[in-house]
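Example (one chain per record):
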Amino acid sequence: MLHRLVEPGQYRAIRYTERLAEAEAVTSVGSKGDSYDNAMAEAFNSLFKAECIRNPVMRPRGGWAGVGEVEIAVAEYVEWFNHRRLHGEIGHVPPVEYESAYWSTHTVTSYRENPVPANAGTN
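Predicted structure:
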């Protein structure tokens, strides 16, 4: 019995990697076993799936009727996530409330590291 050394899917992946190397391009994934480069994106995706996709309150019975409804659901989720969701990393307050509290006690006096030229914004 002959065994194929490489399955078709593996062969395509190998060829893809070779083509990337020929084009002097790099993949967007980290090294083997390294998930740190995508940790924040993976965390957000996990929250998105739990809080939007799998949440019966967000998802209509029977699912969304089309792409338009999915786009609206995603936009509503992002708005809620960015403005009203309680974030544990910032003391279980919504980002808008945290930012308002921060700027009420902090003022920007100067930007020495990256000064804005006096004539910036004029043509």
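Caption: The CA atoms of residues 99 and 105 lie 10 Å apart.
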